Model the fold of this input.
Amino acid sequence: MSSTIIWTVAVITVLGLLLALVLYLVAKKFKVEEDPRIDEVEKVMPGANCGGCGFAGCRAFAEAAVKAPNLDNNYCPVGGNDTMAKVAAILGYEVQAKAPMVAVVRCNGTCEARPKVNEYDGFASCYVKSLLYTGDTGCAFGCLGCGDCVSACQFGALSMNPETGLPMVDQEKCTACGACVKACPKRVIELRPMGPRGMRMFVSCINKDKGPVAKKACASACIGCGICAKTCTHDAITVEGNIAYIDPAKCKLCRECEAMCPTGAIHGVNFPKPLDKDAIKERIKVRQQKAKEAAEGNTPAVAEKKADANGVAAADVSASAKKIADATADTSATAKKIANATAEAKVKEDKKDE
Amino acid sequence: MSKHTFSIGGVHPHDNKISRECAIQPLPLAPSVYISVAQHIGAPSVPVVAVGDKVKVGQVVAEPGGFVGAFIHSSVSGTVKSIAPRADLAGRMATHIEIAVEGDEWLEGIDTSDTLVTAIPEDAKAIVDKIRLGGVVGLGGATFPTHVKLSPPPGSKCERVIINGCECEPYLTSDFRTLLEKGEQVVVGAALLQKAMGGVPCTIAIEENKPEAIAHIKDVIAKLGYSGIEVMVMKMMYPQGGEKQLIDAVMHRQVGSGALPISVGAVVQNVATALAVYDAVQKNKPIVDNSVTVTGECFPKQANLLVRVGTPLRYIVDYLGGVPENAVKIISGGPMMGRAVANLDAATVKGTGALLFLTEEQTKRAPESHCIRCGKCADACPMGLEPFLLNKLSQAKDTEALEANAAQDCIECGCCLYSCPAHIPLLDHIRVGKGFVMSAIRARAAAAKAAAEAAKAAADAKK
Done:
């Protein structure tokens, strides 16, 4: 009996060793030579496999980055500058820091501003809806409100606001991977630079209809009147095809366009102070008056004055910088509140289901 | 009496032909009409009139923008007020020519009398050319330019002309009324199509729920004495009016995936198209009007109206007493394949066949539940597809698998959705999937074209 056990153990052991040897030799023979740096790069990647970089996943990005002669065309928007610095250190390349980006919803058509003209009862998907018709409001360009962007977001940064019927971006969670931009059949969402301390200006409308048509469909549509472009002293705003666009590279965040916009289509976010429209309008008036006088009198004075105006604006920004920290704290507090509220809502729904 | 139908799939909804007794009545002229330049498949037409021009009924207002295109004629006499973008049924912008109506003066050379012209011209090419100049497009719904269909590519031969009088969509009765009231003209139109295709036999297919039309057309054929035209009585089955289904039912031949009907020797034309062919060839009258069924259980004034092209829908509805209070959905076309009207200010086009009013009870979708793998959708699909599978693949955005499972062959008839006991919006998803495949196919074709051009340029450079 005991000899049977011994024989069994011996045979299995020998067999195991032999097979291990075969496996070892085969592995040695058919080993795929791979750059060890690929593994290293992959380790520092965020691992979201979101495809925001344009590759199939983090591994594919690592392979491409190792092969590429430099890192100019490879950038991980999710990991941002920190991750890219690590990747550059591993590969021995230099990388230029990019301004962090954030998804911006360029539709302002809330339920109040943009009344429904018909009711959609089909499958709740923006893509399906856009194949059928232009949507249930008078605006053929704006948000369809079925939340394709929300389901496309892997990071939970998007949610539908039930009051406005529009998606909201949580800028803390948004990684600018661009999945929502691709998911939106109306191309409503744009990736824009986050801006200094999150402060940024944008035109929250993409309606290309002529002014009266756009205004009829939506009270807060951009009507392409061009007042903003005329007001802007930094040459940052262009009006093309009945729609204004603010170039984030040129915008100096003076908020003059926001104050002057007749429909409220221009939005400024994360500013520490609420917009004082009257003060800004007064400022513009004074400046225009002076410019007029200067034009009537003699020209050289203008350059000086302009510089002065810029200086004031810059001072404004720096003075308010202190208050920003508080404001951010506020926002995060509200975010927490919202999270709590959603949790509550969920609980309520669950109860209903029961 | 033997009855024919197609071999796979199909459903049998209640036919609800409640407007079958309503004779076709001309609708009074609207104060203004809006004629779209994109009312057919193919390139939009190019306007040839200017604002302020005086036009007469039947005058060309837009010329084809390409080979697959159609002439568009003024449907009224009056002054061109504007040429501007205007929202269509779905709210999408298209260029419309607005004409303010002044009187009803027809262009010289158009025969507006009722006399029946039975003599068939000898020259087949002349017939096709007159059809082209008359702006005739397929009035069964697809609005494919008829002259293109009648010009088969070299190497293919037409063996039979099929006139589609099935009208398998529930509620619609305009084709039925046309067969009853203008049977002679339809038969002459069929004879003209026969001649245009080289004297091949012709079948007029009519479903069994229209016995009066069947008897009338048989009488007319006997009276007029054209050879080679027969009536075929079809079993009631939806979507029998689909081109590929009808060819299967009549000729027992299957049109392959992505192939045209001419590949199996068939040319299919609708009853209304046959009438338009008669008008264009024998009377010089282009398409300026078409018959529209206005119906629905909640609609008090059922009607079949002869409507000038470009009449605003609101004008038609107001003429018949306005939108009923309990109607929640208006559909342009039949309940199976029609599209919901999002904009009542849209104007009719050549292909507008019906306006259907539905109540909330009739349109409400039941809540979606889980697929129980009963296979009813696969049984119902007249194209032999597997809707339950395409549904999943479409949601997974798997374009390759969608193409391998022939999502591009879907004719969007809605049989799968109609038969699904779990109320899964199969068609909505499959339509999305079909879109993925079609754009992949188009991208491939464009890439192949670019590659061929690059190769050609390289070869030229070598020389």
Notes: Residues 36-91 of chain A form a domain with the 3-methyladenine DNA Glycosylase II; Chain A, domain 3 fold (CATH 1.10.15.40). The longest strand of chain A covers residues 101-105.
